[in-house]
Amino acid sequence: MTLMANKVVEESLRECRALKNGTKKFWDFMRTHDSVSILIFNITRQCFVLVKQFRPAVYMCELERHNPEVFQVKDMNDCCYPRDLLPASVGVTYELCAGIVDNPELSLAETACKEILEECGYNVPVANLRKISSYRSGVGVTGSKQTLFYAEVKDSMKTDIGGGKAEEGELIEVVEIPLEDAFNFSFDENLPKTMGVMFGFMWFQNNVAPLLPQKIKTNKITPIP
User: Considering the entire predicted model, what is its pTM?
Assistant: First the structure.
């Protein structure tokens, strides 16, 4: 993997100043879009549908962890990266299908359906979505709101290969996690994943799994010793 110098994007960064209990407070925050994410369950093959992609921020954090000297320079143009960089795989994470809310003409549910088709290839009607909840994400930096949906899909609803939009630089791999492996997958720290994946799987076990046929339910969880 080849890295170039970092560049500070000041347009999206802001500084917040406040006086609280007589003490001056300073915070930096980043302007960003709200987003949607979708927990997708394929009822044909009883598996969760996730996406797997390279995240530069995750990679750079791992690079700094192994080579702290990389970020000790004030001007990143003077940064000298080590010859033996970490493999790109350390920056790959498992995530729920998700996307930013940047089209005011689309509802949150419509945005979610668009992302499901683009990233995972399933054509899901808006009426088939179930809203789970909304919450704040990145509260220390962005404070943006994310809305989580649940969608059940069938193999017959697969109309595209997915993988994201190449023209937008997306390179997404669609992966399937069998229902019986979901619990162990959630807590396997060797498989980097977002908190949304873990929360989504647990929500499923509490709200959907009890309604599944008995044969399926008995195979669903194998706790880690």
Answer: 0.83
